[in-house]
Amino acid sequence: MHGQSRLLALLAAFMPWGPVHAGSPQPPASTVTHTQASVEWQGNGLLLEVTALRDDIVRIRIAPNSGHLPEDASWAVLPTARQAHVCATPTDDAHAVGFATRSLKISINRLTSALSITDDKGTPLLTDRGAPALLPSDRHGFTLIKTLPDDGHFFGLGDKFGPLDRLGKSYAMWNTDSYGYREGQDPLYKDIPFFIGYTHHAYYGVFVDNTWRTFFDFGHEDPSALQIKAEDGPIDYYVMAGPDAKSVEQQYAWLTGPPAMQPEWMLGFQQSRWGYPTETALRDIGAHLRADHVPTDAVWMDIDYQDRFRPFTVDPATFAHFHQMIADFAKTGIHTVAITDLHIADAPHQGYAPYDSGMAQDRFVKDASGRPYIAPVWPGPSLFPDFTQAATRAWWGQLYRHFALEDGIAGFWNDMDEPAVFDTPTKTMPLNTVHRIDEPGFVPRTASHREIHNIYGMQNHRATYEGLLALKPDARPVVMTRASYAGGQRYGVTWTGDNASTWNHLALSVPMLESLGLGGFTFSGADIGGFAGVTSPDLLTRWYEIAMFTPIARSHADKDSGPQEPWADGRMHEDIRRHFIETRYRLLPYNYTLAEEASRTGIPMMRPLFMEFPDTLIHKAPMDLASGNEFMWGAALLVAPSPAPESPAPYRVTLPPGQWYDYWTGQPVTTAQALVLKGAAGSIARAEEGDTNTAHELKVAPRLDQLPVYVRGGSIIPQQPLVQSTMQTPGGPLTLHVYPGGNCQGSVYADDGQSFDFRKQAYNRVRFRCQIDQKGGLSLTVGPTEGTFQPWWHAYAVVIHGRNAPHAQATFNGTTLPVSVADTPIGHGLMVTIPATEGSLQVNQPIPEK
């Protein structure tokens, strides 16, 4: 009889809303409490609370039925989000308790405590397979098991090195120094326990806010189960209802904060290397960049410049004119970024200020016996700041005073902050190391490194960002980190760590950067050419090409690598690399508009195809999974590198439904084979006449000097004349490249590129729309100017692609203007120059080319 009851209970977990029949198991004693925005369930030894923070976001907290939940505190989720709530309508019946909002329905099975979440269309998003499993109190930890839908796919978790889809894989959340990592190696540097799920045309998000070592299994151990496990810590997670991926990203940004807006120069090309050992060597790099007319905005200094590798020092023998060198770079439009690792040399009585002040203020992490923890890193025996204390972060921030205010260093780089430790099998500090939490919103207490490890790098990043902000309140801080946690995007940028100079690393840098963007880190990049190993000339050139369509374009390598500067490997390769760098600089108005959008909404600059085409499926799956390494650069540009970039073999590119143009020629794509994506079934067939759900497939023969890039019809892309750095003012009008198509629109955003004055309306945003009339004429509407900032341009050169009618006529606000056929770096088209003011441009009789 006991076995029969257990079977019935298991069935009830999967059918919690079915009718009650005689002899069915009866719900155990439980307590249900509804508030305006939540339901609390106590039963089966559990205390379960579900709160509607918004109509499309719920928070789930679970604990043993001891009468209270754990401390309501978070390093990741903003207090304003955790304290938010909306009204929810109770939906209790004989079988389940719960509530509904306008976007979600929550049900808790009275018999099993299993939780089910559906969207407003009734699509099951997350369904428990039984109650959460809590380990005994002396062991801690928990396991959540969710039903994995037959059509499920999963994306995210930060810098995981492999395919974009996590289905069939399992992952650990544990920040790890991973030099020269390989495909499938896990974990890596950052752990962002957030993923986007897909099922039945719906996209949803799940964020598990637990800093302890956590595991995600997407059908690896059990193909029918999504499992989330942690060795300790609270069950505290958030579910976002989508319904599309863009909505999920905006919901996640609302929870954990949008990315910190970067100064414009961070979107320029940047040159770095561990192996510029002297001031002369570094100056030669800057001079070579300018002499070869390679547009550049920054040079980076690795640990070479430091005195005995000690952070916040300069070697007086090899960098004797440090301050002057930085000033000289600035005169040529080159910013300087310096590494400042977190390990402070154990150097008593040596006049090393960071050590002296840190010891005097008791700012370092303790070992289990209560003494400062000391371990070997680059300077030798080193101490580690206790960043879980607000006072320690303030102390750390002040260490930048000389570098930032007197030397004029423009940005800083926090490396080794997993934290990495030498000569230990775990590559990090012992798990019983003691941190002291003294942080607003937290109860003051001590915590072991087991709990703090995954946020340690994030808090180092935060300390640097907030310290620079305190020193220069009107300047956007530039801080790059290697390790982080969810919410770390609020403090700056990141990169994919110590990658390798291999074709595989180049190919997989695309899904890796997409994944970081999904996790909030839109401002991320991969070391061009690879950090570890020796790259081949063709590999390095290919890497330069793709990197120019990623958020951070930094060439970097270790001291044992070969040269990876643009001029390495001869004139032919340099010319190709320079061409793509120049393309990036011409695209700066478009790129900066994307960056501002990301900092405001959380929508990343580099996007999986499903973010722009959520309903386009191939074999029931988002089309990314059948489209090689294609990705969207913003909403307008599709970049299609080969999925096997080392191969000379032709490969197929799939263009989503709609009209497309070749970016490099400006001409419509006409040579592709039309495909039809048959809705939910995802089958592919030849297009029928008039079918609007038509995708295209074309075969591309790779060439070293080319990277296929396509423009979505209906896009208006702003571009500027070429400059050698963002500090140089472009000359002439801003060019608006118009690609006629459905829902034709675009925008451009500008501000001073460095301050926070945009928060006080000191920005300039203009939106554009275009429409094709029945006779083939085009009208372009220039919207009103938003904000008070005056950008460098005073006119728009409107280039209409796919048109070549030299006798066309144009008027702007009733005034007749000349029309010409212009050749531009990205193809020719009809061109009309108009003033940069609100109005309507009408171009009549632009007949398409035959």
Automatic annotation (TrEMBL):
Gene3D superfamilies per record: Glycosidases, glycosyl hydrolase (family 31), Golgi alpha-mannosidase II
One of the protein's GO biological processes: carbohydrate metabolic process
UniProt keyword terms in alphabetical order: Glycosidase, Hydrolase, Signal
The DUF5110 domain, residue ranges: 733-802
UniProt xrefs under Pfam families: DUF5110, Gal_mutarotas_2, Glyco_hydro_31_2nd, Glyco_hydro_31_3rd
Residues annotated as domain Glycosyl hydrolase family 31 C-terminal: 602-717
Domain Glycoside hydrolase family 31 N-terminal: 48-217
Domain annotation Glycoside hydrolase family 31 TIM barrel: ranges: 259-594
GO MF, one annotated term: hydrolase activity, hydrolyzing O-glycosyl compounds
Signal peptide: 1-22
Family stated for the protein in its record: Belongs to the glycosyl hydrolase 31 family.
Protein name stated in the entry: DUF5110 domain-containing protein
Organism for this UniProt entry: Komagataeibacter xylinus
